[in-house]
Amino acid sequence: MGTTYLLGLLSLITGFSVLQQVRSWNITVPKTVTAVEGSCAVVPCQTKAHVRVTWYQYSKMYYPVVYDRYPPTVEQQFRGRTSVKGAATEGNCTLTIKNIRRTDNNLKVYVWINPDSITSQKFYDQTVTVYVERKAPIISIEKQIVEGDVFQANCSLIHSCPSSTPSLKWIQNQFLNNSTLKASNEKENMLWLYTETVYGLATYEMHNSKMGCSAVFSDLTIDSQPVILNILYKPVNVTLTAENDSVIDGGSVIMKCAANSNPRPHTYSWFTRQMGQNIKSNTKRGRLLFNNITRKTSISCMALNDIGAGQSDWLDLDVQHAPIILPASSCYLTGEALKCVCQAEAFPDASIHWTINGNDTFSSSFSFVFTNEKHVTSGQLSGPAESQVNVTCTATNSLGSDTRRLDLHLSESSSLSMWLVAVMLLVGIALLCAVGIYIKYSQLRSSPGSLSNASFLLRPLSLPETIQEEQRYQCPQRVQVEETQSNTGRPESDPEEDTLSCVYDNCVVEEIRQSRAKKQENNATAPSGEVTEEPLGKDGTWLHGGLSTVNC
């Protein structure tokens, strides 16, 4: 009785526990989940606090494990891809499947809470079906962008994994080197919308180019549909071409103006430089006929649209014309060598012919050189010179000829030599004069009693000779002293005569004293009342005892 009672009591307790466990589990899961290929699938699940969760794939024959805390029990196709990261104490039993593939489409899963416990609950009655969709990124941009403006381009992608945003890669990113990027991630229904926006500067090189983006997942890359950029810009790379193969002087030519622009040009301006005149004309045509073309004609065109204008380079027309001998053509004579240069402008290129004194046959001592550069032919003749040279140059092409008698010039080297000789002669003459002056000056300095720079005329005066000499050769102060000592009865001397410089007194004082003494002796022996005059020299100076000049 006791055993039976205990078994019955145990059965009652066990049955109550199982019933309590079965009745206490309420699971909240959706019926379907949408996942984006390459992203992840999130299967929401909520229940009470629990210890362990296991997810199974629904199957009629067996129970494939999608997720378990023990990885070896998980099916190979799901191993490493599934996880339950919610807090079990809060009853979170959400399943995450990453790297969703197309083979995961229509996958049915169900959850088992605390699978180690004994329960009769049929968890597989609450299955969740996973649908997989492919979502390519979408790029959007303005329809028209003006060159130089800042444009905006958006790349958006719908994904199903809020915890892991996809990676977007821009195509044609060479145009976005200086761009800035902004990203956002917003929930949209049961999915998420991730958007990247770039801001860049529009250039005409971007016109008609493709721009797109790609969604990069770990196992998959999905490209967007490209967008063709439409950039509005002014005419660039304006070119001008002549449709005629050749243009003859006085003829006509058809010119074509082409430009790279968006939109196309609506007006063309034509510029012509001809015979020193500038001509401008406006037309809606990019193809124009020009008449009366002459050599050295240049044409340019300008294309205009609603954005701006662009002009071509100047095109110099190759106009066929008869030869024209250029003014630089001439002959140079260097000693007995003759060198002539003849330059002729022509198209087609000209040929050069020479004649000397009417003769076009030359000896072997003459040499000829011909060069051509941009329709200018240069001929050079070198040979011995004659006493009288008459050189003629003739340039000829298919359209005509031109003949000119060349001027004869002394070469620059000969002119330079003559100039140097003249300069040397002048320098030599100047040196000879300088040497002569120096020798004369030295002789004058070496003769006794001579003045180097000046000669003083000794004028005859009525005054006595002694006073006369003293006034001419001595300082006034010394003359006054000597007169006071020797002859106190003499009349005063002329103040103007006393102004003679005394610098000569020191030089010739001895000669003056000797001369004075001799004159006093002569005066003493001369008859009374007679005045003896000194003879005049050739230069008109008085000679005093053979002394005519004073030299310091």
UniProtKB/TrEMBL annotation:
Region described as Disordered: spans on this chain: 476-499, 516-552
Keyword Membrane found: yes
Signal peptide (UniProt feature, chain positions): 1-24
Superkingdom of origin: Eukaryota
Gene3D superfamilies, per database record: Immunoglobulins (2.60.40.10)
Transmembrane parts of this sequence: 416-439
Name this polypeptide is given: Free fatty acid receptor 2-like
Keyword tRNA-binding: no
Classification via InterPro entries: Ig-like_dom, Ig-like_dom_sf, Ig-like_fold, Ig_sub, Ig_V-set
Keywords, alphabetical: Membrane, Signal, Transmembrane, Transmembrane helix
All residue ranges annotated as the Ig-like domain in the record: 235-318, 323-411
